[in-house]
Amino acid sequence: MLDLHSHILPDVDDGPSTMEESVEMALIAYEDGTRTIVATPHNRDVNERSSISAVISLLYQLNQEIQARSMSLKIILGMENHLEMDTPEQVAQGKALPIDGTHYILIELPFEFYPFYAEEVLFKLQISGLRPIVVHPERNLAIQGNSEILANLVNRGVLTQITAGSISGALGKDYQKTAKELLQQNLVHIIASDCHTSRGVRTPILSPGVTAAAKVVGDEAARKMVEDIPQAILQDKMPDLDLPSITSKRKWWNFRP
After folding, report:
1. What is the DSSP letter of 171?
2. Which pLDDT tens digit goes with each residue over 103-135?
3. Do the Cβ atoms of 158 and 133 come closer than 8 Å?
4. What is the pLDDT of residues 83-104, one digit of tens each?
5. How many whole angstroms separate alpha carbon 257 and alpha carbon 253?
6. Which residue ranges form the domains of the chain, and what is each CATH number?
7. pTM (2 decimals)?
């Protein structure tokens, strides 16, 4: 399996505080069947508390620790980028990063509301050549109440990623309910761990989420979300995606460059 969203690097954001715990998280993921992890620290934390060069150094150290333990597991660099009005400018300045040099970029919506500028910013990213992946949309209150918001984005080429702990129920019934609805409507492309720790409910374990998703969409479709589709993304290719089962009635934002 491939995990495209993780907070596994130490002392960067709200993930592990030590390299020892990072290595422990890597071991947990490896034993669960994951072979590639994208380290995606929050861009705000990297820019305010650290630096990209420091993050690259930590990534190298973690991979060295993994190799020393003979794990055939690779950690590569990405970033979880908060959706802000100037996100496209942050990308241009190297402060918001796509996944490992690809054209795919993780975008996090606020939890409490759906920003009025969301469609404009996502469209600007698209016309710059990037393909946004909206992470854990099941945690956004507006989308919880109206999945058509997400359908509008998906119908315009935006990809989505739900958290394994959401669909398994580990993160609560509200997230589980929304994740199940999004799966039923073919509005989910990727399952990732969004891990933050080696203990509790935010560990780098994907398999319970895949098993739970399989009960909704079938085993083949669920496995694609942690294998085929993430692999295509890391190869910077267009993945084979199913069309949403609902069509948004909303008009796409009419920005013109």
Report:
1. T
2. 999 999 999 999 999 999 999 999 999 999 999
3. yes
4. 999 999 999 999 999 999 999 9
5. 12
6. 2-234 (3.20.20.140)
7. 0.95
